[in-house]
């Protein structure tokens, strides 16, 4: 069974083929919420490229739900947020991301040169530099550092599960905080792949070139998703190692070594998923999914 997930506020979200578990540490205890999900990804898993777009939208939505839940529990307040509000938040976040990582590098490069080759090269470099600076700046926050520690705990717990080892703090802490299917690896694949795509798609009008960059974002994301899936299946080969290497290096910024307490939270989420998937599998034989999920 393939697992994915992410860090949340003072906890970890783990996603399996049929369930989502969010475990957080609250008042020195671990609270776990598990929800059965009928993922859209299962219906479209055989549709190459389409499944990537659907999976990314679904992961954004579930990730936002998990973050809101963890924030509510951390603040000990009853906060009701509708699905519509979550969708609006995601749309606003995507607009900000496009502004920061698409429009800003475009205009910065245009100011320096209008030579097609140099422009595309500079634009790609600016995009990567802006992203790295963004990670470095937010890493200075104590709260973000704790989230990065939980990110590391999530990866370690998934590694331990995937290696079929008993989920104990001692066993989990033996594994590295980097994981080949991490969403960070997906982002770096997107950033590098855009350099190639945007160099091939060109128009004499600068406005149309900018529109191309915005319109092609979903297509690039879908192709990058397939590359991430491919890298996870061939990670021991030379090509797999080449595909994985940039993302693994970048994860040194987005993951930190977790404490035993943080690992314990990640273990609670994985165990909750394992228990519920076994129950689901026994009553729904043959319906388990082999879909590779970013972690």
Task: Please render the helix and strand layout as text.
Elements: E1 4-8, E2 11-15, E3 19-26, E4 29-36, H1 40-43, H2 50-75, H3 83-112, H4 116-139, H5 142-162, H6 169-172, H7 183-200, H8 206-215, H9 217-233, H10 238-254, H11 260-283
Antiparallel strand pairs: 1-2, 2-3, 3-4
Helix pairs in contact: 2-9, 3-4, 4-7, 5-11, 7-9, 7-10, 9-10
Largest beta-sheet details: 4 strands, antiparallel
The rounded distance between the terminal residues' Cα atoms is 13 Å
Give Rg in angstroms.
20 Å
**For the largest beta sheet, what order do the strands appear in spatially?**
1-2-3-4
Order of helices and strands: EEEEHHHHHHHHHHH
Low-confidence runs: 286-291
Number of strands: 4
Class derived from helix and strand content? alpha+beta
Residues in helices, as a percent range: 55-70%
Nearest-integer average pLDDT: 87
The geometry reads as: globular
Number of helices: 11
- Please report which band the strand proportion falls in: under 5%, 5-15%, 15-25%, 25-35%, 35-45% or over 45%: 5-15%
The domain count comes to: 1
């Amino acid at each position: 069974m393939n697992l994915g997930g992410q860090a949340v506020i003072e906890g970890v979200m783990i996603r399996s083929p049929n369930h989502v578990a969010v475990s957080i540490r609250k008042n020195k205890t671990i609270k776990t919420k598990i929800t059965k999900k009928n993922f859209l990804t299962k219906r479209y898993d055989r549709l190459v490229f389409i499944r990537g777009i659907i999976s990314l939208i679904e992961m954004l939505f579930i990730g936002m739900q998990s973050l809101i839940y963890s924030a509510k529990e951390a603040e000990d307040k009853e906060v009701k947020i509708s699905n519509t509000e979550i969708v609006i938040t995601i749309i606003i976040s995507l607009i900000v991301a496009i502004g920061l990582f698409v429009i800003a590098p475009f205009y910065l490069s245009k100011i320096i040169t209008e030579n097609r080759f140099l422009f595309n090269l500079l634009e790609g470099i600016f995009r990567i530099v802006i992203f790295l600076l963004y990670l470095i700046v937010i890493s200075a926050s104590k709260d973000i550092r704790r989230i990065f520690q939980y990110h590391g705990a999530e990866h370690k717990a998934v590694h331990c599960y995937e290696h079929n080892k008993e989920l104990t703090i001692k066993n989990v802490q033996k594994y590295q905080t980097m994981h080949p299917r991490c969403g960070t690896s997906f982002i770096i694949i997107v950033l590098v792949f855009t350099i190639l795509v945007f160099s091939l798609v060109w128009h004499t009008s600068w406005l149309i070139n900018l529109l191309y960059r915005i319109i092609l974002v979903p297509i690039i994301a879908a192709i990058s998703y397939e590359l991430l899936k491919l890298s996870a299946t061939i990670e021991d080969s030379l090509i797999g190692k080449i595909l994985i290497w940039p993302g693994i290096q970048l994860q040194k910024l987005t993951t930190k070594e977790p404490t035993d307490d943080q690992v314990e939270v990640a273990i609670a989420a994985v165990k909750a998923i394992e228990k519920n998937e076994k129950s689901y599998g026994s009553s729904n034989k043959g319906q388990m999914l082999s879909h590779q999920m970013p972690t």
